[in-house]
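Quick start: read one record
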Amino acid sequence: TLADMIYLKSGMLGQAYETYDENKPMAISLVIPGRMVNYAAYMGIDNSHEVVITLKNSEVLYLDPEAFEKLTHDIKEDVLHYCMGCIASDYDAFTCMFTGDTEKRGAFLYKSPADTCGTPAGDGWVRVPVKLSYTVIASVMYTTKKTIERLIPTWQDAGLFRPEKDATLINTALFKQLL
């Protein structure tokens, strides 16, 4: 049987995947508002158990399989089209998140929300309405807080990003160079 598909209306979730690598048993990706979790099970291409972690106060909507079957054909097609788009956009993320290169995982962690939910802030900067603690970043990247404490200031000094009170300014062109 299929599990519920989860739509994130607000907040932030982390989605954990088993890597079957004893040195890094889990890879975690961020789920930002406007995205769904468990879309692959709806498409019948994955039935693995997913772990979802609430990283910030979040509001979610559920679409269970019975409710999905009651939707009109056009709405079902729209949902499945959306799911196909998720798969396409997640491909690069999964490739990067499963790499052993911590700097590349971190670059993708910052670049991805800039590309999907950022708003232009001038001169090549994008404002992302998220500010992550070092602890959350370390957890999502499956690395130590000490590594993040070393990496983040280096990136700030290089002009890759600037934290604000409730957001982060990201220089996407510089992050693309890291990838």
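The chain is about 45% helix and 30% strand.
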